[in-house]
TrEMBL record:
PANTHER family: F-BOX DOMAIN-CONTAINING PROTEIN, WD40 REPEAT PF20. The keyword Magnesium does not apply. Residues 9-43 form the PAC1-like LisH-like dimerisation domain. One of its GO terms (cellular component) is microtubule. InterPro entries: Dynein_regulator_LIS1, LIS1_N, LisH, PAC1-like_LisH-like_dom, WD-F-box_domain-protein, WD40/YVTN_repeat-like_dom_sf, WD40_PAC1, WD40_repeat_CS. The gene is LIS1. This is Lissencephaly-1. It comes from the Eukaryota. WD repeats lie at residues 107-148, 149-182, 192-232, 233-274, 316-341, 342-383. GO terms for biological process: cell division. It holds the Pfam family LisH_PAC1. It comes from Coemansia pectinata. The keyword Transport applies. Keywords: Cell cycle, Cell division, Coiled coil, Cytoplasm, Cytoskeleton, Microtubule, Mitosis, Repeat, Transport, WD repeat.
Length: 411
């Protein structure tokens, strides 16, 4: 690329005259004459009073000073990054990151306690559900408030996104579930009726069905396209608090006020296992992802199957539950046996999330803390003050290294 392509004609002429002035000043008269002729500046006369005099040297000195300043600033930035709290640094991978205080952002728009926080699976969007009957959406990176989704007439208990992030589903104490089309500006496209009491939780059962849990003691399976309930699962004696599904949609697990965790075949409605060991209400239960299996088998003293075994990483082998008895429990779904109890919280365990690394879980509690548990040892490796009030829910972003928690203090 020539100078003519880089510099406008006026700046090119100034550069040529500055070079000629420098050559005359340094005594390169013959070279200057050749350069003047070839550059079309034959009439140039060096003049100490001209603005081009010593301009090249001044520019060169300025560049040197600027380079030095840049190096100094880079050094200061590196030092500040080393001294900054670890919570402000971004690791190279989500799987390497663990939350550290203080909280990066506090989101304050709700007027009542937060019941659920849920990250969008594709975008930097966080949805928060509240007892104020709304769902609010936030930019999870900046913390900026984006919109309020209204429609329910009582507390919103749960919110879920489909795997593609094109549909959002909510459930409420108004006995309904609502389906929202994200592409259509979060328009409510369907309202599902069928439960006889507060709808506590909802999850996607594949791409075309939903599973919901309710205070009416049932779990319902819904056809997303028609909005019809296609199956009702009955077995719990009290309020069903949560529902979760394996990635292949072949198994559900539910948690209940009756102090049990149950496994279900959603295709037949059959209860496959009734797991008991908690001494109070079970707030939540979730299937452990396959990347946790190595740690969980080590924790439970179970043999590690050969890596080539067909079912070594089959989904749904373990469930972890959290309870008002202040503990979390690890269950073997094949035998329905309690394998380990995580002890450390001082009040109700309200929610937990699996870390993407497969090595830890992070739980929240009415003791106002967030605790990190090592799945290989079962020990609490870190305790973080999460809120000034009861901490009700937690989620981990799959897009960036962020954890969100919700509290009864509306933040």
């Amino acid at each position: 690329m020539s100078f003519e392509q880089i510099l406008p004609e006026r700046q090119l002429k100034e550069l040529q005259k500055s070079v000629l002035d420098f050559m005359h000043t340094q005594g390169y008269t013959e070279s200057a004459a050749v350069f003047a002729r070839e550059s079309g500046n034959e009439g140039f006369v060096a003049d100490p009073t001209d603005r081009h005099h010593n301009l090249l040297a001044k520019k060169w000195t300025s560049v040197i000073r600027l380079q030095k300043k840049i190096m100094e600033l880079e050094s200061k930035l590196s030092k500040l990054q080393e001294e900054a709290p670890l919570s402000l640094r971004r690791p190279s991978s989500v799987t390497e990151w663990l939350p550290r205080p203080p909280a990066r952002t506090k989101l304050a728009q709700h007027r009542s306690p937060i019941t659920r926080v849920r990250f969008h699976p594709q975008y930097t969007v966080l949805a928060t559900a509240s007892e104020d009957m709304t769902v609010k959406l936030w930019d999870s990176e900046s913390g900026d408030f984006e919109r309020t989704v209204k429609g329910h007439t009582k507390a919103v208990q749960d919110v879920a996104f489909d795997s593609k992030g094109s549909i959002m589903v909510t459930c409420s104490a108004d006995l309904t579930l609502r389906v929202w089309d994200i592409a259509a500006d979060y328009k409510c496209v369907r309202t599902l009726h069928g439960h006889d009491h507060c709808v506590s939780a909802v999850c996607f059962l594949g791409a075309d069905r939903l599973a919901s849990a309710s205070r009416d003691r049932t779990i319902k399976i819904w056809d997303l396209a028609t909005g019809y309930c296609v199956k009702t699962l009955v077995g719990h004696a009290e309020w069903v608090r949560s529902v979760d599904v394996t990635p292949d949609s072949r198994l559900l697990c539910t948690a209940s006020n009756d102090q049990s965790v149950r496994l279900w075949d959603p295709a037949t409605g059959e209860c496959k296992a009734d797991m008991r060991g908690h001494s109070n209400v079970v707030e939540t239960a979730r299937f452990a992802p396959p990347n946790t299996y190595t740690c969980l088998r080590r924790l439970a003293g179970l043999p590690q199957p050969p890596a080539t075994a067909a079912d070594a990483n089959a989904p749904g082998q373990f469930v972890i539950s959290g309870s008002r008895d202040k503990t979390l429990c690890l269950w073997d779904t094949a035998s329905a046996q309690l394998l380990h109890t995580f002890i450390g919280h001082d009040d109700w365990v309200r929610d937990f999330v699996f870390h993407p690394s497969g090595k830890t879980i992070i739980s929240v509690s009415d003791d106002k803390t967030m605790r990190v548990w090592d799945l290989a040892t079962g020990r609490c490796s870190k305790t973080i003050e999460a809120s000034q009030h009861f901490t009700t829910c937690i989620d981990f972003s799959t897009v960036s290294p962020l954890v969100a928690t919700g509290s009864v203090d509306t933040e």
